[in-house]
Amino acid sequence: MNDSHAVVVGGGIGGLSAALALHRRGWRVTVLERAAELREVGAGLSLMANAVRGLDALGLGPALRRGGHGEAPGGIRDRHGRWLSRVDAAEMIRQLGTTALGVHRATLHRTLREALPASWLHTDAKVEHVESGPDHAEVRYQGPDGPHTLEADLVVGADGLRSRVRAQLWPRHPGPVYAGSTTWRAAIAFPHPIPAAITWGPGAEFGMVPIGDGQLYWYGALNAPPGGRAPDELAVLREHFGDWHAPIPALLAATPPDVVLRNDIHHLPVPLPSYVCGRVALLGDAAHPMTPNLGQGAGQAIEDAVVLGAVCADGAGGVPAALAAYDRQRRGRSQSVARASHVAGRLGQQLHNPIAFAARNTALRITPARVMLRSMARYADWRPPADSASSAS
User: Fold this and answer.
1) Given strand 146-152, what is the order of strands in its sheet?
2) Is the separation of the CB atoms in 280 and 157 below 8 Å?
């Protein structure tokens, strides 16, 4: 093992993936998580082929396949249940080499966490300042026992949508903005087999993804003003989705009110000019927060992590060149996916004009399934760097 040290700010999926990718390259890593408990807040994830390949490169693919659910072919429906577009599973495998994987966020987070030495993970650690010099970086943070300063060869800013690292290093950047939609999510026990699919109504979308172990992840999204809250969020969903096709009413009926999460959707309309400042690299939502319409948020963070580990394989001595390569390899692709996801939301869930809505649905019905799949597959058609999967554990 080399003596290179990295500090990862943020203990979510992106941060832990980065820590594991560096660990597999021989780095020593300190993960600083602001929350008092290291856990993932959320419901489920649909991991596309690129994310699955990234997790394979991190050595976690087999465990997650056991703990998740290989998604059955589905597609897009209207609110009455009529199919607008279907996904052919055999064609998906032919194009991408694998299917998508539905998994509970907590399962993925736990699998990442357990692959790292427990002593590397620090909670209740509030980062106050990051400084990058030519030869090393420095992180100052408040822990439960007082202030600390860490020196590092590399700092990874993986502290999410409201990244303090991003705000400090790019103080004039306008930051994320509300994308116009609010989403509700839950993971519930639902043993009946159903395909992963989404349904569109005017200004509304409902999705469902089996995530293994008799569980199912669902979400509902609506055009809405930001910052809204309701005394009973489940009642809001029943009002909007209660008369949609089966099994949507049954899913809502099977959902305990206290497991429903509500979040406004944000994105970064002004892309960052770089993901790197000195010896600090941004990753995941800290670098490229995006709408969920392509199911690529976690996947792009995992890609970031795998590439970061690959370019940093030579240890601390080559960090500046490694981070230049990281920025070159990741910024164009991730920002392109973020733009495409925003457009997909505008033409999908957010579309509410009756004429445009009807025209969009008609276009979907007459478009060959293989053409639709090809248009989606280009975002999931990513392979890790050639030597990622063979790096030492």
Assistant:
1) 126-132, 137-143, 146-152
2) yes
CATH of the domain at 294: 3.50.50.60
- What amino acid is encoded at 96 in this protein? L
Burial 118-137 (b: 16+ CB within 10 A, else e): eeebbbbbebeebbbeeebb
Predicted confidence (pLDDT) per residue in 168-225, tens digit: 999 999 999 999 999 999 999 998 888 899 999 999 999 999 999 899 999 999 999 9
pLDDT of residue 268: 98
Residue 277's SS3 state is strand
- Neighbouring residues of 296: CB distance < 8 A, sequence distance ≥ 6: 48, 50, 290, 337, 341, 379, 380
pLDDT tens-digit map of 67-99: 888 866 689 999 999 999 998 777 777 777 777
Domain, as residue range, for 136: 5-71+99-176+267-349
309/390 Cα distance (integer angstroms): 12
Q: Where are the alpha helices (DSSP H) in 200-283?
A: 233-241, 248-253
Q: How far apart are CA 31 and CA 125, in angstroms?
A: 9
pLDDT above 90 as % of the chain: 83
Let me know if residue 103 belongs to a domain.
yes
pLDDT for 390 beyond 70: no
Nearest C-alpha neighbor of 154 from the set 261, 314, 274, 388? 314
How many whole angstroms separate alpha carbon 3 and alpha carbon 278?
Answer: 20
Q: How far is CA 52 from the centre of its chain?
A: 12
In a domain, 187, yes or no: no
